[in-house]
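Design a sequence for this backbone.
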């Protein structure tokens, strides 16, 4: 007797929606040679800065440029630095068409940030005219110490104590502490101090270039660049009431 198995046929694949974390590279020049020089300098400082990360090229800062972008050369350059360029956004029609011809897909523009329902986020940077040298306080006893570089995607949490990092915190990495965070190397990832609500917690760094800093739930991203007196220099992050301050040391 024949059996109808049409309704029970097995499929060989499923198609589902997915979310993928990517590194957004904001292009500030159409000169690919200049981009190559800067990437070479960053790679010299941290050879493990990239780890085959997917990259989205943001053209919003150069969309008014009339000079064409050599996307083929740009894609080859990024791949040579252990990244995988996959998408582009924010360009003018000619730039987007050229990017598409180079194999990049168009990504939607970044949506406007929505208000956080549970907390008020204020971004305040105190301008200091004359930097004053202040010694960085020593970590509390029992602090968690990390002496290896943290790469993109890695996370360290110091539960109930301070966190001391003696090596670079790369873009995409995350350091969290219930107390203070001390980074004695470039801080380029996310740093979250006072994770359980300690408003007296602080973040200390000898080279402040963070992707995000947060103290007791109040945070600031660096989509807007830090002032020259703290960017790439020794600085601290602390709360003054509900204001997040970033000050030079």
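Sequence:
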């Amino acid at each position: 007797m024949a059996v109808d198995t049409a309704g029970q046929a097995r499929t060989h694949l499923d198609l589902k929606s997915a979310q993928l974390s990517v590194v957004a590279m904001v292009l500030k020049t159409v000169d690919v040679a200049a981009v190559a020089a800067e990437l070479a300098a960053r790679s010299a400082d941290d050879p493990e800065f990239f780890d085959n990360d997917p990259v989205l090229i943001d053209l919003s800062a150069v969309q008014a440029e009339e000079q064409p972008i050599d996307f083929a050369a740009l894609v080859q350059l990024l791949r040579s630095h252990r990244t995988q360029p996959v998408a582009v956004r924010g360009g003018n029609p000619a730039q987007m068409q050229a990017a598409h011809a180079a194999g990049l897909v168009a990504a939607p523009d970044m949506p406007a940030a929505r208000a956080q329902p549970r907390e008020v986020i204020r971004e305040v940077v105190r301008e200091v005219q004359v930097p004053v040298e202040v010694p960085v306080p020593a970590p509390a006893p029992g602090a968690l110490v990390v002496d290896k570089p943290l790469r993109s995607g890695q996370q360290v949490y110091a539960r109930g104590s301070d966190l001391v990092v003696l090596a670079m915190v790369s873009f995409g990495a995350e350091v969290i502490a219930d107390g203070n965070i001390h980074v004695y190397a470039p801080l380029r990832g996310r740093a979250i101090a006072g994770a359980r609500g300690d408003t007296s917690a602080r973040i200390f760094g000898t080279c402040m270039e963070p992707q995000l800093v947060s103290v007791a739930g109040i945070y600031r991203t660096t989509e807007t660049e830090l002032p020259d007196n703290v960017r790439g220099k020794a600085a601290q992050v602390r709360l003054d009431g509900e204001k997040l301050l970033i000050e030079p040391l």
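The helical segments are 32-45, 71-80, 93-101.
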